[in-house]
Specification:
By secondary structure, this protein is of the alpha+beta class. It is built from two helices and eleven strands, in the order αββαβββββββββ. It has two domains: 30 residues; 117 residues, Ferric Hydroxamate Uptake Protein, Chain A, domain 1 (Beta Complex). Strands 1-2-11-6-10-9 form a six-stranded antiparallel sheet, covered by helices on one side. A three-stranded antiparallel sheet has the order 3-4-5, with helices on one face. A two-stranded antiparallel sheet has the order 7-8.
Amino acid sequence: MKRGNNMKIFKRISAALLAVCAAMLLFACSPAREAFATLKESTQERVVLVADRTSEGSLADALRSLAEEDSSFSFEGTESEYGLFITSVNGRTAGEGEFWAIYTTLKEYEGVTYSDAAWGTAEYGGKTLASASFGADGLPMVEGELYALVLSSY
């Protein structure tokens, strides 16, 4: 093999290794994704979480993040024109005459009303959570507020 061909191969291998090292460095130095919610209770009939910080994310985003991070929590749902419709939590699928209701302590935020006790309430830790006025995609995560998914009947 000629010296010129060896140099071309060496340069290509060097460039490829440099690209791999740069990608690994970027991945290693990127800030860890901060969780923005913590599970307080997680059963087959009720899940309660608290927002650790106010974020741009929604309850649906928090649920997706928790499902990725915590193997003791899972949920399933379908996406529709109205957003995420939760069908199953921790392996418990809502049966006939049942649904996963959403309750929250978030009453009003930035001029928008997010829950109303007139539509139902749930209790947790001495606090009353009111029925959400929005679905999981429409509920913002606000620091200190509680959010609950409760298996309910109609």
